[in-house]
Structures are given as structure tokens and as C-alpha cells.
Design brief:
The strands form 2 sheets. Strands 1-2-9-6-11-5-4-3 form an 8-stranded antiparallel sheet, with no helix packed on it. A 3-stranded antiparallel sheet has the order 8-7-10, with no helix packed on it. The protein is about 15% helix and about 30% strand. A hairpin with a 4-residue loop joins strand 1 and strand 2. The mean pLDDT is about 95. It has 3 helices and 11 strands; from the N terminus they run ββαββαβββαββββ. The chain has one domain: Jelly Rolls, CATH 2.60.120.
Length: about 230
């Protein structure tokens, strides 16, 4: 049984666009139980974009902090209606850097609408990395909205022509991107941000990647919707 510690909430406003990133520490009070459930889960290769394996997750554990999450959705992100979990999974980044496809080597956004909130729930410590956020240098975009999508993708093509294909897991500044913020992993730390924010997982290069939930870079990933 996990000993419950006090939950704390902080809001970071990143970059020139001041997009909020919410960090909730000691979120669930049950990281050990969630890790144990992950060890018994059945992982399978993820979709074409995610560089690793995933297993379905019952998101009902969020109910113990549902009131807090709804308050964050309203006060920070401006949503007024009920929160819905679109999907939830255990995720393990396991693809070696040399095996990545070009789109996996640069920061990305999840959804341009602004109505989707991405959630990362870390179960392990900072040795497993975290999440970094970026500005696209050619356009200056830190968020990709529907009005910006065409210009962003056109500029990415010019990046490829000028700078060549990037390789490995992206971290820090590069010719095409500038890092504007980073959230380090901590056990039972939950991070929320709009899916339109450019970001990339921080994947440490000092230890081998594994698809074993016992030793791999295990996180919980979710998307929430509201309006």
C-alpha cells in the first residue's frame, strides 16, 4: 500500500506564447499499485508514430482526484463542460534511437484544436527523463493551431531540405527547434498540457531501452476532452 503524500499543483507558462503546463505532484497516492498493474498488463507494439509498446489502462483511478482535475480544466484551460477520457494506456518507449523514423526524431503536437488535453503520469523518477517543450525556429510557433498547420508542415519540409533529416530522440536546442521548457519525471507526477503544444519525450541515452515494464521507461499516457 502506498503512503499518501500531500498533493501539490503548480502551473508553468512556457515560452513567448505563455501556454500553460500543469504539474501535479503526489497525484494518485498509488504509484506502486499502478506499477504492479503494469507488470501484469499485456503490452503490444503501438501505432506507427509511438516508438514503443502500449497496454490498455482502466482510467478509473483518476476518480480519486476527479474534482481536482475538473478544477484544473476549468481554471487553467478554460473548459466549462464535463471532462472525458478519450484513451488511456501504459506506454514504454523501447525503440533504439537508430531505428526511429524521421517524424519520431523531432518535436510534435497531438491535436491542433485546443480542445484536447494531453496527460503524462510518471511512475518512476527523473532517471527516466521527462517531457520537453519547443519553439519551431522557422515559424516561431510553440503551438500548432488549425490556422497554423499548413504553414508549419510547409516549414518542416524546408527544414528537412536545409538541415537534413534529424536522427535519434530529440532533446535540447537544434537548428530547427529551441527548447522552451522541461518537466522532469518524478514518481506519481502528473503533467497536463494542450495537445497543440510542441513537445517531445526526454529519453535518457545512458541506459538501454527495454519493453519490460520492470525495467523500461514506463509512463501512463492519456488524452482528455472538454469544451
Amino acid at each position: 500500500m502506498d503512503a499518501r503524500q500531500r498533493t501539490t499543483v503548480s502551473v508553468r507558462q512556457l515560452g513567448e506564447e505563455r501556454e500553460p503546463v500543469v504539474v501535479i505532484d503526489n497525484f494518485s497516492g498509488m504509484p506502486g499499485q499502478l506499477l504492479e498493474t503494469a507488470r501484469e498488463a499485456r503490452f503490444a507494439p503501438a501505432d506507427a508514430f509511438y516508438p514503443g509498446v502500449r497496454a490498455p489502462l482502466d482510467p478509473s483511478y483518476l476518480d480519486r482526484q476527479r474534482g481536482l482535475m475538473i478544477e484544473v480544466m476549468r481554471r487553467v484551460f478554460g473548459f466549462r463542460n464535463e471532462m472525458h477520457v478519450l484513451n488511456a494506456s501504459y506506454s514504454i518507449v523501447s525503440s533504439p534511437p537508430d531505428n526511429l523514423e524521421p517524424p519520431q526524431c523531432i518535436p510534435h503536437y497531438d491535436d491542433a484544436s485546443g480542445n484536447i488535453i494531453a496527460v503524462m503520469h510518471y511512475l518512476q523518477g527523473r532517471e527516466t527523463g521527462g517531457t520537453a517543450f519547443y519553439r519551431h525556429n522557422r515559424t516561431g510557433f510553440e503551438c500548432v493551431t488549425p490556422e497554423r498547420e499548413a504553414a508549419f508542415h510547409s516549414a518542416k519540409t524546408r527544414d528537412h531540405t536545409e538541415f537534413g533529416a534529424m536522427t535519434g530522440y530529440h532533446y535540447g536546442d537544434s537548428e530547427a527547434y529551441t527548447m522552451i521548457g522541461e518537466v522532469e519525471a518524478e514518481p506519481d507526477r502528473l503533467v497536463m498540457y494542450r495537445g497543440r503544444l510542441l513537445h517531445s519525450g526526454v529519453i535518457p541515452g545512458d541506459r538501454p531501452l527495454s519493453d519490460d515494464p520492470e525495467t523500461g521507461r514506463l509512463t501512463i499516457n492519456m488524452f482528455l476532452s472538454a469544451s
